[in-house]
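Exercise (ungraded).
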Amino acid sequence: MKPLLQVRNLRKHFPVRGGFFRRVTGWLKAVDGVSFDLPRGQTFGLVGESGCGKSTLGRAILRLHEPTGGRVLLDGTDITALERRALTRQRRHMQIIFQDPYASLSPRRTILQTLLEPMEVHRLGTPESRREKVLELLHIVGLGPEVLHRYPHEFSGGQRQRIGIARALTLDPKFIVADEAVSALDVSVQSQVLNLIARLQRELGISFLFISHDLAVVQHISDQVGVMYLGRLVETAPTDELYRDPRHPYTRALLSAIPVPDPKWRSRRILLQGEIPSPLHPPPGCPFHTRCPEAMPVCRREMPDWRPIKEGGIPHRVACHLY
Amino acid sequence: MTRSGEPLLRVRELAVEFSTERGPVRAIDGVSFDVLPGETLGVVGESGCGKSVTALSILGLIPSPPGRIAGGSIRLQGRELVGLPERDYRHLRGKEVSMIFQEPMTALNPVLTVATQMTDVLMRHQGMSRRQARRRAIEMLELVEIPSPEKRIDDYPHQMSGGMRQRVMIAMALSCNPRLLLADEPTTALDVTTQAQVLEEMVRLQQKLGTSVVLVTHDLGVVAESCHRAVVMYAGRIVEEAPVEELFEHPRHPYTEGLLQSIPRIREEKLPELPTIPGSVPDLLELPPGCRFADRCYKADDRCRQQEPELELRCDIAVACFHPNRYAGCPES
């Protein structure tokens, strides 16, 4: 079966302006040639450190940022080629959940108004059926009808995130981008929301692009994982394989850097030298070579190919000269 | 096993109150713990549990109004800090106790170079000349492994990356050889690879200089890797205190147990469901009469809902619970 989402060589470059006339003085390549497939009903976990371009990638896929190049196919429809009205119609199939639901829920609207709005905009159903749908969605995310006439500030962070999820579900999307959706939540609540997302994926068959800086969270929720560095994917693999047998030196360093909640565990930590270079001036060759413990002369000169090292339903791909 | 020696810091029955539109609220209530010389104590809990307020009150930095210390005592080497005039506190801060915050950009002055900020502290507290202070500041930057410190010292904070700024904060905080370092979520704003570098740095310096550290964090992984003991806070109270090995292996309090289970950690096998703690933290203005965790606790009974358990110390482990988990190796008193 064809994957639900196909991302091909997607690029998003932002102009950098400077000087008196605000002329374009350079380009920030936030996303620079990303390709991956997301099968129907699965979750693709996207990890990376701040500034690696993971959020920009999520937004470029939805055309919340207009891509600079490349293609995005959702269920066979080329999203990148749609004109404005057709794009608006497609939007109901793809939704986004943000990190801070407080910032994305209108403080002056009740929960009922917030959840009705998308259906009203897309003229779906009748007033009665919409209201019914809202109640059903609240039930799905674990909230009762008593919340309908309350305002966002009356809820805790975890409850607000549940409302954000309910809103994303109002139009029965096929695909949801969850951008750091549980990062602002405390652990005890975080696990509740993660379980909820996993259940939605299972029961409603929705595909997720789950963006997070937290590798442990991503492992729990994803079928396959992609690791991003300076605007590019450096490794993708089925989740179990990526955590069991990480190949790219950056993936290995990332995995080893996570503090382990076990005082008896003695780390064999790969401490990276220095910090992520500025995406405005990415190093030549492999973007990771400046910090890579295994860098070879070729890494300074040539960008490694994005090649599969293991085929299969979900291939294991790496961009590294070691393989 | 009991800990011996005179504590460097002794906090007893500390209560901090804030006035709000809905009335006074106790952010922490009856908090007690000791920190021994050279020891790193983790203070861990979820947002709103009072862990940062605890750290701020030790430094006399509770904004007043709306906040005030409503009771209890904080003794540093026997000297009472509660009620200390601001003038005396100013002499203490940076010299005997210093602090690292989550976001170094808010703690560093953006219009002064790192050199100016570091030498000011040294000249003020150590009576050094500007030249001596500069030399010492460069040494400290070298110690936290800032590359070419003699050049970077003349940078402004915005010219540095987040990880570098946090190292400068650490260097600055330790430059006067304080006896106690308070670190409030020092690595939370950093990426994992940078966090690993900064944590390693902190632990190394702490061992080298023998500084006592109170490390406030929400991350149990950070506690496991860098603390000797830890205090777990919930809704303004300490629910458990233990050496870290004991805390992680044998959590006594059901909250600690639940917290440890629900942390997403990298596992050999994916779990079908993550363990959770049901419900959410109670509103401090509408606290239940009994145990603050009772509503979410799988062990709670009528007694828990009516009576608040006190923190009880048994063989180096303190728990505030009527039904703590019991483990071998600790004689019941």
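Further reading is listed at the end of the chapter. For now, observe: Residues 5-89+223-318 of chain A form a domain with the Rossmann fold fold (CATH 3.40.50.300). The first helix of chain A runs from residue 54 to 61.
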